[in-house]
Amino acid sequence: MSGSIGGYRITRLEHSLQAATRARLDGADVDWIVAALLHDIGDELAPENHSEFAASILQPYVRAEVHWVVQHHGIFQTYYYAHHLGGDRHARDRFADHRWAGLCARFCAEWDQNSFDPDFPIHELTSFTDDVREVFDRAAWADEVIAVGNEQLVP
Fold first, then answer.
1. Which of 66, 75, 81 is nearest to 116 (CA)?
2. Which segment of 33-37, 42-46, 94-98 scores lowest on mean pLDDT?
3. How does DSSP classify residue 87?
4. Which of 65, 77, 94, 136, CA to CA, is 20 to 30 A from 54?
5. How many CB atoms lie within 10 A of CB 60?
6. What is the rounded distance in angstroms from the CA atom of residue 115 to the CA atom of residue 19?
7. How many CB atoms lie within 10 A of CB 48?
């Protein structure tokens, strides 16, 4: 993820670190922090469905709402740019009645969309090691892990 994102002055890694740093600074729990860190991990391998790619990695280890947000963040994120490319910036509206649509919109607005700032002070990748280990050391698919939890980005 050390390559540049077309048209941006930061790398994909820096974007992910910015998103995770913002989540951490906002007081988000470890599930949201790791989700912010990994939300675009599929950009290079699965550019047409990177959200689903990242969500499938996280799904067995995070709460259901975190998985849903990562899975759908790509469509919600198009709100910020699709109209410049001839697309429908309101495509996310088809999920307007979903219980986690607001979470996804906030995830994109607060941690994803604004994380392209080359001057934003990011936390080092190694500072997220314990967070990543905490999430991926969990028993996969454990009911107490994947159950719906605190349905907020931050407490």
1. 81
2. 42-46
3. S
4. 94
5. 15
6. 6
7. 9
Q: Where are the domains of the chain?
A: 12-141
Q: Three-state SS for 7?
A: coil
Say how far apart CA 138 and CA 141 lie, in whole Å.
Answer: 9
Tokens of 11: 């790398």
Is the pTM higher than 0.70? yes
For residue 148, give Cα distances in angstroms to 31, 48, 97, 142, 145. Answer: 12, 28, 17, 12, 8
Token duo for residue 125: 């990748």
The domain 12-141 having CATH identifier 1.10.3210.10: the answer here is yes
The CA–CA distances, whole Å, from 105 to 51, 113, 130, 152 equal 14, 10, 27, 12
Only one residue has tokens 């699965």, namely 46
